[in-house]
Every structure is written in C-alpha cells, then in structure tokens.
Amino acid sequence: MKELLIDNINLNEQTFIIAELSANHGHEIEIAKKTMLAAKEAGADAVKLQTYTPDTITIKSDKEYFKVQQGTIWDGVTLYDLYSEAYLPWEWHQELFDYANELGLICFSSPFDKTAVDLLEDLNTPAYKIASFEITDIPLIEYVASKGKPVIISTGIATLGEIDEAVQACKKMNNEQIILLKCTSAYPAEIEDANLNTIPNLKDTFNVEVGLSDHTLGTTVPIVSIALGAKVIEKHFILDKSIGGPDASFSLSKSEFREMVKAIREAEQSLGKVDYELTDKKRNNRTFSRSLFVVKDVKAGEKFTEENVRSIRPGYGLAPKYSKEIYNSFAAENVQRGTPLEWKHIK
After folding, report:
1. Is 136 helix (H, G, I), strand (E, B) or coil?
2. Which CA distances in Å does 46 have to 13, 92, 234, 276, 308?
3. pTM of the prediction?
4. Which CATH code fits 280-345?
C-alpha cells in the first residue's frame, strides 16, 4: 500500500487525530476559534468542519418525510430546523482556515453538495470527508475525488456493496487516496455496537487505509481501534458542553480529548514493530531464566540425576532442554552444590 499523506502527516507513521467541530460553535465565530485552539492544545492534528446550509442539504417542509423520527436525540425536529441550528456559516470558512493555519492545525471539511466542494477548493483544503449519510451520493463522491485530494469516507449506514461503490467512484476519478472509517451512525452510539473487528476487514477487503469515526461516550473505543489498525480517529470536540447544540451530548471536552490523544500515542508506541531481537536489556534479563544447577555435591565419576541436578533460577547453567541428556551421564570432576552445570562437568 502506498504512503498516504494529509498535509505533512504520513498515516503510515502516526495516527491522524481529528477534532470534529460540527455544530459545536454556538453560532459565534469566536467560540469556533477558541474551540480550534483548545483542540490544538489537546493534541489534535486536525479540525474538521461541515460545509452546508439548510438549503443545500434539504428543503424547508413540515411533511413527515422531513421530520427526524428514528429514535435519536433530535426526534420531532424537522431536518431544516436541525440544520439551521447546526450549520457553520460559509462566510466563516476563510477566517477559520486562516486561523487553523496560524495554529499549525490542519483544517478541512465535509462538503454536502458541489457548491460546498467549490468553496473548499477555493480555500485549498488538504482533504475531504464524506459523511456517512452521503456515502450513497456517488456523483458527489466522484466530484470530490476529482479534486485529487485524500478522501475520507465514513461507512456508518452503508452496506458492503455501497462501500464498494464509493471506493470505485474514487478510483473512477483516478483517485486512490481513500480512507474508510468504521462508524456507527447513532448519536450517541453504544459501545457494544462498535464492532471494531470490522476495521481490519475493511482494510483487507478494499486495500485502503482505515480508521474510526466514533460517536460513543468516552474514549475506550478509539483507543482499542488503534490496535486493530485504525490510522485515522475522528471524535466530536466541544469547548464547553454548556454551549449546547445538537452534538454536545456525545462530544469530548478538552481534558477528555487530551487524555484520548495521550492514550492513542501510547498505544502507537506499544504496538511498535515485529521484533524478536535480543537487546542488551533482554540479554541481561535472561539471567532470571531457568537453567541446570547442581543442587547436591557431586563427586567425580558420580551419576547426574534428578536428585542432584535441577532446573532452577538463575540462568547461568545449561538450558533445561539438555536435562534428559545430562541425567544418567557422569561427572568429570567434583562439582559443589550451587554450581551452574556446564559441559566441562560431564564425561
């Protein structure tokens, strides 16, 4: 698999950690900027926006089709009203991208129609994110992929066939910079629904980089996902839950996000590489292993037996695997109790 970079971050070398701003801006650009600063301080590599307006994502209608009623925290609200509360004003984008650049924080977004893609291209976005509910919008995915940037795709509502269609849409546009995120599209999601074993299966099935877009409460799920090969972690981030908003209940605070980042970085270190080499430290510790010792005084010519030679710690004598060969052989010299057995002691 080729190296995949987002800005200067190589996904083969470290996990790409995204703080999802989403609706956690309180309709104030200063809150959005303070949130970005807090995300940077908490260890995020990137902040992700969502680029839509109520009119680019739905229509204003009170018909039942347009009311949320799937057992979510937003049930009873029309889509238009929900997105009116949640959307990030497009006139903020330039300032937020510029501010992220000042912070040394990667900034990109999820577009929800072609006009949003055009806006993000004007801002020189380094990557795109396809939200779970847009994975079936193949024309949108093709348009995004045609820009030649990495395409991160959440798979929360998709069948295996629909994931394949999305991947093929990118490849059709000669874009193989694809990252698939395991996602459970519930807000919040239950830990038992995470099914993280899907992550390595996605990687094997589609031969792409993989990661996690997580909506569970807490940080257990993203940390565990690292051990399964996740190279991207996306988690909703909020400056202060008192700000409220549609996503506040399942977003991490600064301290929670910082702890998650710390645990992820430690998990990366613990995975390391495939390694059977004996370092100096390992060699030194081998002295605590077992070996064959004389445990009763043995005279020259006397037979070695299980009574006078045993496998004990420390590891200065012959390896225990030689015990059967040693037993019933004879001592070449007098050997005192507590002596590590060596070949020179044996006739």
Report:
1. coil
2. 16, 17, 9, 36, 66
3. 0.88
4. 3.90.1210.10
> Which phi and psi (to 5°) does residue 292 adopt?
-85, 125
DSSP states of 281-310 as a string?
HHHHHGGGS-EEEE-S-B-TTPBP-TTTEE
Task: State pLDDT tens for residues 208-219.
Answer: 999 999 999 999
* Alpha helices, H only, the chain: 29-41, 54-57, 79-86, 93-103, 114-122, 138-145, 160-172, 198-206, 220-227, 254-271, 280-285, 323-326
Domain boundaries defined on the chain: 11-52+87-271, 280-345
For residues 113 and 52, the answer to whether their CB atoms sit within 8 Å is yes
Question: Residue 78 has what DSSP assignment?
Answer: B
213: left (phi over 0), alpha (psi -120 to 50) or beta: beta
Q: In the predicted model, is pLDDT for residue 245 greater than 90?
A: no
CATH pick for 11-52+87-271 out of 3.50.30.30, 3.40.1620.10, 3.30.420.40, 3.20.20.70: 3.20.20.70
> Are 114 and 141 contacting, i.e. CB atoms less than 8 angstroms apart?
no
